[in-house]
Amino acid sequence: MDEKDIFILRKLYENEYISGEELASSLNISRMAINKRIKSLKALGYKIESARKKGYELSDKDIIRIWEIKDYIQSSNLFKEFIYLDEVDSTNTYVKQNQQHLESATVVYAERQTQGRGRLSRRWVDLEKGIKMSILLKLLLLDLEKIVPLTLFTGLVINRVLRKYRVNSFIKWSNDIYLNGKKVCGILCELSGEVEGFGSIIIGIGINVNAKSIPDEIKDIATSLKAETSKDFDRTRLIINILKEFEKEFPNFETYGFSHFRDEYKNFCINLGKEILVNGQKMLCMDIGKNGELVCEKDGKIVEISSGEVTIRF
Ligand code: BTN
Prior knowledge:
Layout: H1 3-14, H2 20-27, H3 31-43, E1 48-51, E2 55-58, H4 66-75, E3 81-88, H5 91-98, E4 106-113, E5 131-140, H6 147-164, E6 169-172, E7 176-179, E8 182-195, E9 198-207, H7 225-229, H8 235-256, H9 262-268, E10 275-278, E11 281-288, E12 294-298, E13 301-305, E14 310-313
Parallel strand pairs: 3-4
Antiparallel strand pairs: 1-2, 4-5, 5-9, 6-7, 7-8, 8-9, 10-11, 10-14, 11-12, 12-13
This protein binds biotin.
Biotin (BTN) binds next to helix 5, strand 5, strand 8 and strand 9.
């Protein structure tokens, strides 16, 4: 999608109807060229109707307003670039493959993922009208041990933003966001590339937002914001609010580390005080450590866990 397509989408979004002539003259291209572009936007999934004498109408306005996110990114002190993709295998994979040409603090968003990846080599099921994005951070190798705390920090930021929307969400260690006992958001942080003292962290965020129905294969464990609240969320605002909150708190994370956020994290962490299974072993979750590790008790001994599969036994 190029700048002209984004302009057309913006005009369609902002007007009830917009004529082909008007679009053609604003962009200084022919009516035929407009027709062609409208056709390819439709092929990408945009619901554009044409009404005689009135012009084109965007009948489903739940689209990502690329121009608004780009405006925010331009004014941001942290984020440098926003890349919008209609479809990709996985935004994390895309960032990994293109990281040499991407600036640090680039955000890559995809409307559809054909091979979305989850933690522990699982699949991330692509639900319509969700948010699937990855943030690339190029860091000094020295800082790479921050990867676990960084994923927890990202989960906390998303939980905080959702709570501002009055969503009653919680965090399941390490960084799943739960709503009414089911997962609405997952985060996949990956380390990648080491060049001259630098490495990259790719923070992949998947949020189930406006999907009305959840596929059978995951409906017992996953949900969407819409399915739980019966409300439609403005995905563009949600993305911007998450990036803004991340930007606002990132300096605190860099200066003080996870410990600055530990109390808030603990407040919303559903594992605390529960009996949990860690890689199949039963333990009692006692605390969250200074760097975000799970502190558990097993057979009278304290065990610290910083990765692996955790299941809560209610
Ligand atoms: C999990 O809970 O297992 C993590 C899920 C992470 C999904 C997101 S969607 C955007 C990014 N691209 C991917 O392929 N995965 C992450």
